[in-house]
Design brief:
Two copies of one chain form a homodimer. Chain A is α/β, with parallel strands linked by helices. The first copy, chain A, contains 14 helices and eleven strands. In chain A, strand 3, helix 2 and strand 4 form a beta-alpha-beta unit. In chain A, helix 5 runs parallel beside helix 6.
């Protein structure tokens, strides 16, 4: 697809009980966001929340788009790091909102950034004056294929991540893949893991595309990027539509690779030793090995998953520096946190996963040992 | 009704889109709460949040009831004063929740207290792990007839009251009028104003009862108390059922007397010069005078309202210590806050109110001047 056509965009509808909104996926279509906002009449004040440094280019484009459409704007910033997902940041942001909204204004929070901005900002939108509308403008691959979709908002507590939050859908998700051009490579790769995960959960064609490409090829191809973002987004949308509030055991499927992934992240104190995506990649290998032990998946399909991860340059083993004791300790805590002891999301084949209760601890240990260097 | 019958209780259903829950109104029926909880299987851990001092008797009864029913309990306390409705209290409470809930537990927050406990605790329940169930056990008259019903939860910001919150319904509201026996008289009287307000909004029979009684008579009569609490609750339930999320302009009717009432509370810095109920009583007089100026209400019905308030010993005038300038300043701020400039809830007759836009400022001033001593 040539550069000339990159401003075209497609809308993916999200249909939920009593509400409906759209994910707009395009490349370079941010200049039209203000007009879309104006026409939908979501409000008359766009409060843009963004990262003070890294994502400023995207935020500038968003602000310019609102200005062109004569929508009043305000700019608020918060660092896009996990530390911002705290009760004190939330408190500060709510105070800033109270200071930004004049009489008679109908404010809308516009969240331009990665998962942190989306999680924190979505929660603030849900709480300010018992709820104002918000729009997601994800600027990282991880946010575009995963965190901006499904309405999960949260901040952390000292006792654990995402312990405070809401499930609250945005009015609109604006995904411009042009934002991804400037992403650091490791961050891009990390986001790609969630697309790979979505492919395993429900899209064999997407998996086929990811199998045939290198990360470099994907980064350079606007067409591939749009295909990957829109197909991965569709998988997530479909799951969320079936189980918005995570009460039916379906939404849990999105946690493929996350049980061990979270433990690994916790074991390295959420440091840069592993990005979220890298931890999920290794976690997906663990889940695949457990599925194999349980004979849920064929050897051929299991290999496709592990080889696919490896070929895209994702880690599939835990480095020697990580101590087993720390890892198993984190593991048991994580199991408690999810309150489903020994409950795992396991692949049956590429394109299908199951939620399995009562997985024997022995099998879990074997699978973990198989990824330890 | 004799004391023998006081453990009987009645259930008022609250029917909302997709959900339904009950208000249980009785006198002395708290010993049955644990059994109700157990049978409904709302969870397996009752975390009781209450005031460390004043309401301890009610909380002890609640705890005993859970213990008798073999429901695990935890006790958390927070002072039942407006200062507790802060982001920092919320943060502390969420940390305590994270520390109280062990693996595999299904916690339910049980809010034993007045409006502060209910508002803060309900919000914490809505946010902890993206929502756990909660139960209201209101112990003040104000909470029983008003704040425990309708799912409004909130904390304050330095910029204003209730600026952070959710509309989120409880699983159950347990109203035991026996708790009201030990209420200080001024607090009891203050709560009675909201029942009086509900009568004007939608219950002529309740109004008739309140017209014929003194506060002392009501306090001494378990039968009157139950009638008043259940009839006032029904009025509120009916309004909330029609407009749960305050999007249809119906729920606003519950703000009768509150436009001026809030301004008066703000003018005295929410000090004990006026309780909330006292401020709402004077605000109801102001609204009645505006309605009279607009010829929305007959002179006879307007008199019934003002005389009714006066006979129950509620203030119907603003004392000389309150400066007009401070009051008008607070007034204009409050109008902005509610974002409906010159929008008033006005009585048409006892049992019916209307929401009126574009009330002339001149009439508002006249009505306010009529209550200034």
């Amino acid at each position: 697809m040539g550069e000339k056509m990159t401003t075209a965009s497609q809308n993916i509808p999200v249909r939920l009980a009593g509400r409906r909104y759209a994910l707009s996926i395009g490349c370079g279509h941010t200049p039209s966001l203000g007009k879309t906002f104006k026409q939908a009449d979501w409000g008359n004040l766009a409060i843009v929340l963004t990262n003070p440094t890294i994502r400023s280019k995207a935020a500038r484009q968003v602000m310019a788009s609102f200005k062109k459409a004569r929508v009043a704007t305000q700019l608020l910033t918060v660092p896009d790091t996990e530390r911002s997902k705290s009760m004190s940041s939330l408190s500060r942001l709510l105070n800033q909102l109270a200071g930004s909204v004049g009489p008679g204004m109908r404010p809308v929070l516009v969240l331009v950034g990665g998962g942190v901005i989306g999680d924190l900002g979505g929660l603030a939108a849900g709480l300010y004056k018992r709820g104002i509308p918000y729009i997601q403008v994800p600027t990282t691959l991880l946010a575009q294929v995963d965190s901006s979709i499904g309405g999960k908002t949260a901040v952390d507590l000292p006792q654990g991540k995402n312990l405070v939050g809401l499930i609250l859908q945005p009015k609109y998700v604006h995904c411009d893949t042009a934002f991804l051009k400037t992403l650091p490579e490791r961050q891009f790769r990390s986001g790609l893991v969630e697309a790979f995960k979505s492919a395993i959960i429900g899209d064999t064609q997407l998996f086929g595309l990811l199998e045939r490409r290198s990360v470099e090829q994907i980064r350079k191809s606007p067409s591939d990027l749009r295909t990957i973002v829109s197909r991965a987004a569709r998988v997530k949308v479909k799951v969320v539509e079936l189980d918005e509030f995570e009460t039916k055991g379906i939404r849990m499927k999105l946690n493929l690779g996350h049980t061990f992934g979270h433990a690994l992240e916790a074991a390295v104190n959420y440091s840069s030793v592993y990005t979220h995506g890298e931890a999920v990649a290794i976690g997906t290998v663990v889940a695949t090995r457990i599925a194999r032990s349980l004979k849920l998946i064929s050897a051929g399909e299991a290999d496709r998953i592990v080889v696919g991860l490896d070929q895209l340059g994702f880690p599939i083993r835990v480095g020697r520096k990580i101590k087993r004791t720390v890892l198993y300790d984190a593991m048991s805590k994580d199991k408690k946190w999810t309150s489903g002891a020994h409950r795992w999301v396991l692949p049956r084949r590429v394109g299908q996963v199951v939620v399995k209760d009562g997985v024997p601890v022995r099998m879990v240990r074997q699978a973990i040992e198989s990824v330890m260097e």
